[in-house]
Amino acid sequence: MVCWVRTLLFISVLVPAFVECRIRHYHFNVVVKNTTKLCSTKPIVTVNGKFPGPRLYAREGDNVLVRLTNHVQYNVTIHWHGVRQLRTGWSDGPAYITQCPIQPGQNFLYNFTLTGQRGTLLWHAHISWLRSTVHGAIVILPKKGVPYPFPKPYKEKVIVLGEWWKADTEAVVKQATQTGLPPNISDAHTINGHPGPVPNCSSDGISIGPYTTRVPFDHNCKNRNFLRFVNADAHTLHVETGKTYLLRVINAAVNDELFFKIANHNLTVVEVDACYTKPFETDTLFLGPGQTTTALLKADQGIGKYLIAISPFMDTVVAVDNLTGIGYLRYNHTLAFTPTTFVAIPAVNATPVTSVFSDSLRSLNSKQYPANVPLTIDHSLFFTIGVGINPCATCFNGSRAVAAINNVSFVMPTTAILQAHYYGINGVFTDDFPAKPAIPFNYTGTPPSGLQTMNGTKVYRLAYNSTVQLVIQGNTIIAPESHPTHLHGSNFFVVGRGVGNFDPEKDPLKFNLVDPVERNTVSVPTAGWTAIRFRADNPGVWFFHCHLEVHTTWGLKMAFLVENGKDPNESIEPPPTDLPKC
C-alpha cells in the first residue's frame, strides 16, 4: 500500500495534516535541558527539549513508529500508557518487564498499531522517576470519516497536569531508597508545564510588570485577594464566546490524584482513558496519575478571565503537596487588566466529590461501541494492596517502607520477564503469584501483628482468551490510602466499588454488568475495594501496579503472563532485532 509518511522532529504542538496514511513516524530524542520553575533552575530529562514532551497524534488503526535515542546519562524506556499493544508487548515499555532499558547512547524503534482505540492517552518514561518530566499526550482520532459520538467541537485543547520538584527527582528517590523513608513531596503542580503563581516566587524567570502586586498565598483559591499577576508562569486557555471546545485532560503527575476545575464553567465528560462514556455534566474532574478525561467545554460566560485550578486529593494521614496549580481561561477580547473570576476548589479530603465523579462514569454501550463485559469468569482473583514496614539494618531508623500485593513485594529482575518467557530463560521469575492472600484478615480494620511482606518476582499465568474478575482490596496495615492502579496490555470494566471489606456474597449482587466504565487505570478508594473484569486476549507479559510512583518503587506491583493462543494471530510477535540488551 502506498502511504504518505510525515516525520515529526523536535516539535511538541504541531498537529499533522492527516492524509490517507497508516504510518506515523516520530523521533524522540531524550536530552537534558536547563529549566526554570519556582524561581530556580535545574537540568531535567526531556524528550526533544520539551516539558511536557511532544504530542503524539494518530488515527485509530494507524501504525506508529517512534525512534527513541538516548542522549542522557540514565537508562530510559517509554511506556505508551493505555495503548493495548496487541501482540506487540516488546513496545510496551516498562523496564525489566517487557524490555531491557535503552542505555546511554543507544536507540530503539517502538513499533505498535492503534487497534480499536480512539481518544486521549499519554506516554511517559517507565524507569525510576524519570516520568516526572518525561511525559506527553497521545491523541488518537477516529478513523477518517468516522464522527465523534458527541457534538463536534470547534477546537480541541490538550491539558497535561503534572508535578514539579525543585530538587532532582532521581536524587529524591535515591535518598528515599537509602534511608528507607518516604520520598520528599513535590513543590508544585503544573498545567502544561506551568505552575502559575506560587508562594515566595513572583515569576519564573519572567520580569514582573509594573501593575503586579503580591499578597499572601491562598491554596484554596477562595480569597479574592489571592494573587494578581500579569506575567506569572501560568498556562492560559484562549476561547471564543459561544464556541464549544474539547478538552483532553491528562494527569501525568507522579504521586498525586488531582481535582480540575474552571471558574463558572461546567464540563461534559464524554470519554476516559480512550473509552467513550455516556455524557454527564460536572464542575469538577477527578483524575488519578495515568488517567485521562476528555470533556466538552462551552464558552458560555461573559468576556473575562477565569481561574483554572488543579488541587490534590488525599483523604488520609499521608503527606501530600497541597499547593494548587493555577492557569487561566481567557475569552477573546478580554481587556488586559480585567479582574480574574476565582473558583472554590474541593477540600483536600473531599471523598464525596471523588465518589460522585467515579459513580457517574458509564460506558457508552452503543451498537457501535458496545461494553463487552465478561459475564462468565475463569479466574476469580482477590488482591490486597497497601504499604508496610520491614526491618532494614542500614536504614535511618532500622526499618524500610515497603508496598505489596497479597503480601508479596515485587523485586525487579535484571533480565526482562517477557524476554525470559519468550526464550525460556530460567531463574528470572516464577509463576506462583497468589490468587488471594495466604492469611485472610480484617483488611480495613486492625491488622495482625508481625505481618511482614515477602519478596519475589512472581507472575500470575493466564490462558489466552480466559476471563478474569479481580477484586482489589485496600488495606490499613500502615495507613489506608487511595491507590490508582494500572493494568498494561488490556482495558478492563469497573463493575463495582465500595468502602470497607469486600463481601463476596453481597457485593457481587450490586455489580454493574451492563454499562460499567471501561478504562486502564482505576482508583481503589481509601480503606475500600474496586472490582474489575477483563479478557486476557493479548499474549505477553503485562505489568499491574499502583500508579503512585512512590508505591511502585516500594514494590506494589506484579505481572500477568498471558499465554499464546492456538493460531499465529493469537501469539506474540517475534522480538524486534534492535531490542535493547540488559
From TrEMBL:
Query: Which residue intervals define the domain Plastocyanin-like in the entry?
Result: 32-144, 156-333, 433-565
Q: Taking the first listed entry, what is the main subcellular location of this protein, grouped into a coarse class?
A: secreted
Top enzyme class: oxidoreductase
The cross-references to Pfam families, in alphabetical order and at most eight, read: Cu-oxidase, Cu-oxidase_2, Cu-oxidase_3
Which InterPro entries did the record assign? Cu-oxidase-like_N, Cu-oxidase_2nd, Cu-oxidase_C, Cu-oxidase_fam, Cu_oxidase_CS, Cu_oxidase_Cu_BS, Cupredoxin, CuRO_1_LCC
- Asked whether the keyword Cell inner membrane is assigned, the reply is no
Q: Which cofactor does it need?
A: Cu cation
The protein's GO terms of the molecular function aspect are: copper ion binding; hydroquinone:oxygen oxidoreductase activity
EC id? 1.10.3.2
GO cellular component terms, semicolon-separated: apoplast
Keyword flag Iron-sulfur: no
Q: Where in the cell is it found?
A: Secreted, Extracellular space, Apoplast
Keywords (alphabetical) are:
Apoplast, Copper, Glycoprotein, Lignin degradation, Metal-binding, Oxidoreductase, Repeat, Secreted, Signal
Entries under Gene3D superfamilies matching the protein: Cupredoxins - blue copper proteins
Q: Which SUPFAM superfamilies match?
A: Cupredoxins (SSF49503)
> From its record, what is one biological process in GO terms?
lignin catabolic process
Which reaction is catalysed here?
4 hydroquinone + O2 = 4 benzosemiquinone + 2 H2O
Q: Which family does it belong to?
A: Belongs to the multicopper oxidase family.
Q: Per its record, how is this protein called by name? A: laccase
